[in-house]
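User: Structure please.
Assistant: Input sequence and predicted structure:
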Amino acid sequence: MILITGGLGSIGSHTARALLDLGESVVLTAHRSTALPEHLAGGPAGRVVVEPLDTRDEAAFLDIGRRHEITGIVHLAAAPHDLPDPVEYLRADTLGLLAALNAATVWGVRRFAVASSIAVYAGVDEAPWREDAALPVVAPHQIPVFKKTAELFTALAGRSAGFTALNLRIGTIWGPLGLPDNPFFALPRLLSAAVRGEDPDLVPPRPPAYAGDATDLCYVKDCGRAIALLMLAERLDHRTYNVSSGRLVPYAEVVAAINAAVPGADITLPDGRNPDRPADNHLDITRLREDTGFRPEYDVERAVRDYVDWLGKHDR
């Protein structure tokens, strides 16, 4: 069984779905609600287990291994991104990671994957971003600061304990169970407002959107499948993988798909690029593609239609 911390969240639950589709069983940890989303409900008996867990509780973490035979861990759980005190944020995320790495060591897992982020490439000028790029020592935000150190912690623990340690540099992900009012990019807000017939209201502190902006965009179902493939691959040639669609997606392309999928949406964006926006870039996924055979299944139009259908039946 593969344990996924944060397994009922957007990326976690879709990773679980992909693992189930590939024949694996999963243990999903949840800090708050333990209700299964519908895309995980009604599966084969015994192949999906939910365990309540505060990942900082090392004893409770280890106790899961007494009830289930865990062969791999995907560590996605994270402290709330908007914790105002960076020390509190770093403490919470570090304690959770260390507890997960200790469990991996005690249980003797085969593979441990930690969620890193596209944000670790801040300050890297080359395009597209490749895993072998030298990462500048900069601290633009508490999330990339932790993600960089998490990669090092995980690599060190893996070498010591003998498990394969994977760093997942995850791109800009959107889709079911994601934040509809995402603080980092405007596209989820534009789509959810269109479905609900609302004004998207991109007044600060919400992020702005211009027709000429572009982002590394990946639908969450593709993201989950990529992670599942990395966890189950018989052999991997690398220890760090970019996880995304592998292309730069213009905002204008997404808005056109939203307007086509939602009658009456009629979203318009200001021309040009956001003048305060850094240069647009995206992740190179050559490693992921060559080592797992991954190909994105959701282009922008299919992703928008699927997400619109979801939002028509759910809050997020």
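Strands lie at 2-5, 26-30, 48-52, 72-75, 111-117, 164-170, 172-174, 214-219, 240-243, 248-250.
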